[in-house]
Amino acid sequence: MIARVATEVSVGRLFDYRVPDALAPRLAVGQRVRVPFGGRTLSAYVVALDERDAAPAPGASDLFGMSDRSDGSDRSDVSRPERLRAILAIEDETPFLSPVLLELARWMADYTCATYELALRCMLPAAVRNRTVKAKERLYVTPCEGTFDLTPRQAELLANLRRVGGGWLNSLTREFACTPQTLKTLAEKGAAVIAARQMRRDPLANRTVLPTRPLPLMPEQAAALAQVIAAVDAGAVARGAKAGSAKAGGAKAGGADGPSANAAQGSDSESGARASSPAGE
Questions:
Q1: CB-based burial of residue 6 (10 Å sphere; 0-12 exposed, 13-18 middle, 19+ buried)?
Q2: Do residues 162 and 117 share a domain?
Q3: Rounded (5°) CA angle 50-55-57
Q4: Nearest C-alpha neighbor of 46 from the set 86, 1, 7
């Protein structure tokens, strides 16, 4: 398997790396990985995967066609995938970037003439890009199957845990009106497992997002909108008619490639040069 990644270094191109067999089942598009880059290691984001033993189709490696390969690219010989350097590790199992965000970043880079890596960084908070910042961890309680020697209260708690499928320790103490020690006693008897897990913040948790609908316009607003639409449509028709007459006139004067067309192109070029010269100055 070959992975195409965008590194933290804004060089305006992507790089291909070989995926070790141990990482292949866990690797996904959008994940952050560690890769060798020259004489150092960098964080990078997987933007494409190819299941075959060959590099992905060319075209997106050099975003602007300006690379001279003087950077010692790890994509020096895509016809020999065994010579590609391997990904070192997966830094985060959960993908940071969805396919939609990756496509949006590509459009942003093209529209603003920025590098793809810079567009990706704009989508990630600084705390996410900082490798020294670790995800928040909390204790998670998971119920176990089987029969255990429990008190009636403990048996009730275990039944509730199985009903909800487990949860965060602090949340369960509030929901079931118990103490952390009670849940830890269940764990000591083998009825539950308490372990630390990474806790990701969900900004939409416990919130209901209602669908929105266009508000009805007042009569004055509807009349104004009708006038705007009519003016836009009339302008489009007029521009189309003007373009058609200009094309017909050019054909009569000698065709699209005739003297008139060449003269018009020369005039446009001179006008463009005169218009752009103040900006150059």
A1: buried
A2: no
A3: 85
A4: 7
Q: Which residue has the tokens 């020259």?
A: 38
Q: Show pLDDT as tens, one digit a residue, over the chain (281 residues).
A: 888 888 887 777 888 888 888 888 888 898 888 889 888 888 888 988 887 654 444 444 444 343 444 444 444 444 455 678 888 988 878 888 888 999 999 899 889 988 888 888 888 887 777 767 677 788 999 999 988 888 898 899 999 999 988 888 988 999 888 889 989 999 999 999 999 887 777 767 667 777 888 889 999 999 999 999 999 998 888 877 777 776 666 555 554 444 444 444 444 444 444 444 444 43
Q: Report the b/e string of 236-252 with b at 16+ CB within 10 A.
A: eeeeeeeeeeeeeebee
* CATH number, residue 48: 3.40.1440.60
Residues pairing with 16 in the sheet: 4
- Around Cβ 230, how many Cβ atoms within 10 Å? 10
pTM here? 0.47
User: How many domains in the chain?
Assistant: 2
Residue 155: which CATH number? 1.10.10
Cβ atoms of 114 and 122 closer than 8 Å = no
Collapsed DSSP state (helix, strand, coil) of residue 118: helix
